[in-house]
């Protein structure tokens, strides 16, 4: 059995899945400031047979929320190896002031880095790095982000620089290296690395909180966090790379929707308290956004699902002209909505008045004009349908799967989309999505592709990606390549081509480390 | 437009991306470079072509190299000025104005950054009126103005002066130097006297870029149609709106060549448009018939946002609208077509005068 948990800003959702992937139990409970007690409460409500739990998968929005708020971030020393190049745009040059201030804005430009073909751009200067270390120490910084020009082609400079800095700074200083985190594109990769470094302390706290919650429930199975691409990372990896959880929320809800509805190709509408997020699934995986993405106004280059967010949710304010959103009562729904005795007309009140939902006390909305209610709900349906239409890529009939607590706002048929499904356990699709997450392996490098060798180079890259998925814990035989991208570098001779291959497979529960020998058999059978 | 400021830089960058017809690279890094330079040195004064004295020395500034390399090995900020100074030493006189060789993509931004650092005014115009991949594909070449001497500079302090026998040779030599210097360099070349500007430049393209960026921004804010706003501003035609079905790329002679198939949606359902590109979008064939060719502009826009889509940004499933627009008339003369017509890029078709297709 597996437990999937989604720790959102407002609610902690949890689902228990049997060995045949059936959902055995599902609950929603409030997120608590200390995290531990909220997770414990959710698991307690699931009441799993703890000895049969083989793994726990957790999706969390903690890290992205911390960045957006600019709170709980660790000050970072951002060391870039690239002089004499790159000086025109120092680290964090494109950051919003709030986030730059939150991480301290400490940027260091040093020599090092490579050319596109791996030649040295300039040699590393150990003395320069030692002087840098002295300044880092003097400022009391304990988290260092190292990025080097063309490190996706050659990572040695980042590793060597980190060694030199570590020797000077001593143990207890964290290092985030850019080639572990991002792709070609220095600023975006460096940004992801700095964000990651700023989350390292918080990651330790959060991972410990999750571990503590499981220990309190006597669950000895390992736990994993879900990543942006719908694959899993273990606790050690989560401590090292918290930034890889950033877009896991929408990914989990879409993957959960696909799983619960049995549809691999569909549109997913995930309606929460404040927004309705629309995404498109192809073959069970969310379509990725093209190009770079932004997190809290900072350009990064990890891949994220392509999601259209509309300001429509269960908590949306409804104005006198019948329009809903974008303002919302958010997590105060149970205090401010009419059906809960509040004074604010919300979209949830409309759904209750129309008899679509049984939430709170319907007598508080009995006075609403029936025609007004219907028109306002119709307007919501129109906007959702328009959003789905904008996201789809062909006129082909596309089923729509509605999930999330606010999906009572989605009627059984939308204009242009007659087939709307609301699967069982729709309100905990996030948690189910976390529970079914897979493990992945990826290759993204600039390859030299001589004439006539393209097939061989591609085959090698595929093999590497599959190998990485197996190393990450995938079950042999279940791994498949889900995406290949090949972009020749313009104006560069010699067939330099950027190749990206992604492979995913099912988590091999039988290969999971067990907390005690006695549990190992149970885990294999689970 | 009298000044490039922090306030109109975003509009110019977006508009330049549209005029880049798929090439010229993502102007994002260029925009940041220009922004940092304006922050440090103040806004850039912009002058019209007819405001420049006849004996003025106007130097076009550009970057050469691979957009991917620019995204990774960011400049140190001294390269354009180093190229300019090397050219001035060689010429024995100082530049009085700077201008753009190419309004498309990142090359619209580098002259702005350089003008801010050099404290020189920028002439509103450029030598292409769009983006082309090679240095000899410029209007001054048609007017008999050579691109030599050409000054090239990298971020390490290396500079190279090219004195070539003709513009094609200069391009080949510069390209080889560029690769040796790491595939991203700055160039100062194709020096124009004030009285040559009317022949050598497409006027007011900086202003046009700013206007294109502004109409897209305004259309989005008003929930209008940004693609239609671009079409109207360029007095162009929407050739097709659809989704990208297939992209085939290969590298030939250092250029990313390929084609993409776009399947029409809605009003264009059942129609298919093939895009041929070599760094820029160069030819559009709809349902088997050519509908637009270089040197006319073939702009691929994101259907929802109106943002320009580069050839590298074409991905399966992306919704795009293809807008065709007329190029500067000098490009459609026999000499212009010899430089930048479809056959100069290896396509076995003749130039199709804009608007003559159904």
Folded structure, characterized:
The complex is a heterodimer of chains A (about 525) and B (about 350). By secondary structure, chain A is an alpha/beta fold. Among the domains of chain A are: about 120 residues, Rossmann fold; about 110 residues, no CATH class; about 70 residues. Chain A is built from 15 helices and 23 strands. In chain A, strand 12 and strand 13 form a beta hairpin. By secondary structure, chain B is an alpha+beta fold. Chain B has two domains: about 200 residues, CV3147-like domain (CV3147-like fold, 3-Layer(aba) Sandwich); about 120 residues, CV3147-like, CATH 2.40.390.10. In chain B, about 30% of the residues lie in helices and about 30% in strands. Chain B contains eleven helices and 17 strands. In chain B, strands 1, 2, 3, 4, 5, 6, 7, 8, 9 and 10 form a ten-stranded mixed beta sheet that branches. Chain B has a seven-stranded antiparallel beta sheet with strand order 15-14-13-12-11-17-16. In chain B, strand 12 and strand 13 form a beta hairpin. In chain B, helix 1 packs across helix 9 and helix 9 packs antiparallel against helix 10. Chain B is globular. The model of chain B has no long low-confidence stretch (mean pLDDT about 90). Chains A and B meet through strand 22 and strand 23 of A and helix 2, helix 3, helix 7, strand 11 and strand 12 of B. Chain A: InterPro entries: ATPase_NBD (IPR043129), Hydant_A_N (IPR008040), Hydantoinase_A (IPR002821), Oxoprolinase-like (IPR045079).
Furnish the topology, listing elements before pairings.
The complex is a heterodimer of chains A (526) and B (358).
Chain A: E1 2-7, E2 11-17, E3 23-30, H1 36-46, E4 55-60, H2 62-69, E5 76-83, H3 97-103, E6 106-111, H4 126-138, E7 143-148, H5 156-169, E8 174-177, H6 186-198, H7 200-216, E9 223-226, E10 232-234, H8 235-240, H9 248-261, E11 266-271, E12 276-282, E13 285-286, E14 293-295, E15 298-300, E16 307-310, E17 316-318, E18 324-328, H10 333-336, H11 347-353, H12 370-391, E19 400-403, E20 420-421, H13 429-435, E21 439-448, H14 454-471, E22 480-488, E23 496-505, H15 519-525
Parallel strand pairs in A: 1-4, 4-9, 5-6, 5-7, 7-8, 11-19, 19-20
Antiparallel strand pairs in A: 1-2, 2-3, 9-10, 11-12, 12-13, 12-16, 14-15, 17-18, 21-23, 22-23
Helix pairs in contact in A: 1-7, 4-5, 9-13, 11-12
Chain B: E1 3-4, H1 9-19, H2 28-41, E2 44-47, E3 57-65, H3 67-72, H4 79-91, E4 97-100, H5 110-118, E5 122-126, H6 139-142, E6 150-153, E7 159-162, H7 167-180, E8 184-188, E9 192-193, H8 197-200, E10 202-203, H9 205-221, H10 226-234, E11 237-252, E12 255-264, E13 272-278, E14 280-286, E15 289-293, E16 297-302, E17 319-325, H11 334-340
Parallel strand pairs in B: 2-5, 3-4, 4-5
Antiparallel strand pairs in B: 1-2, 3-8, 3-9, 5-10, 6-7, 6-8, 11-12, 11-17, 12-13, 13-14, 14-15, 16-17
Helix pairs in contact in B: 1-9, 2-5, 9-10
